[in-house]
């Protein structure tokens, strides 16, 4: 086995182990755009532009992945979104 093959094999194994979780925000008829944007800035550390784009995607597509990462980082962020009255889930 060459060094290149071994390195490629290790990379494939590493990709399998590092799975990314997502927070998916769902559309609702209750919250205003401003509230959704402000909450995304606070809970997910979005820039105002990112938050606005996510809010638009949620409105027109019905849902949007607003944050990806490790589960330990996403759980409290998802809780903040839920506590703010938004409809979000971890997947």
UniProtKB/TrEMBL annotation:
Q: Which N-terminal stretch is annotated as signal sequence?
A: none
Stretches assigned to the Adaptor protein ClpS core domain: 22-83
Listed A to Z, the keywords are: Hydrolase, Protease
Keyword Chloroplast attached: no
| One record GO biological process | proteolysis
Superkingdom of origin: Bacteria
Pfam family name, one: ClpS
Per its record, what are the GO molecular function terms? peptidase activity
Q: What is this protein called?
A: ATP-dependent Clp protease adaptor protein ClpS
Instruction: Give the taxonomic lineage as stored in the record.
Output: Bacteria, Pseudomonadati, Bacteroidota, Flavobacteriia, Flavobacteriales
